[in-house]
What does this fold into?
Amino acid sequence: MYIKVFVNLVGKNIIEGIALKSMVEFRWHGRGGQGAWTASELLARTALDEGKYIQSFPEFGPERMGAPVTAFTRISTEPIRLHCAVYDPDVVVVLDNTLLKSVPVTAGLNRDEDSLIINSSEEPSVLKKNLAITKGKVWTVPATEIALRILGAPITNTALLGVVAKATQIVTLEGIEKTLKGRFRLDLAEKNFVVIKEAFKEAKVE
It folds into this structure.
């Protein structure tokens, strides 16, 4: 049985001047314990603080460490009326590239403006070819390596937030930093923000 938990909050003051369609939908793929939903929540909270309407929720199958987990984020300039999974995402984020062989991560990506963001040291062009992607952009970042270097642990979810910020410009790095400091102990927030900035810098796109 699948369980869906919704967080549906409203930002009062919509920021003007941001290149944003009325609603942008994200789907996150990870494994249990990797923090896919945490990343979804951090993105949503940042967007909320920056004046947008947001929704964030996970969808769990068997709740065990290492099992595939999916999470969803909606960010909008208008109130969100939908209460269902994201089937036609604008952005897909993959925290664990081993899922590329077992989970249809590209499902619903069919527009030129769509983006697939993958934790991988491979060149985007290689993965684009391997996944037979003909539309949209593929972003890659060696998130595991960055996290190990800075955090000393393979915690990849915050690194992927940095790439989301770069690929979509839907939230600012400053906004993410504020959210981290409101969620985590200060020293941990600062280290994770270093990870985010490094991922932002190292991300590649094809």
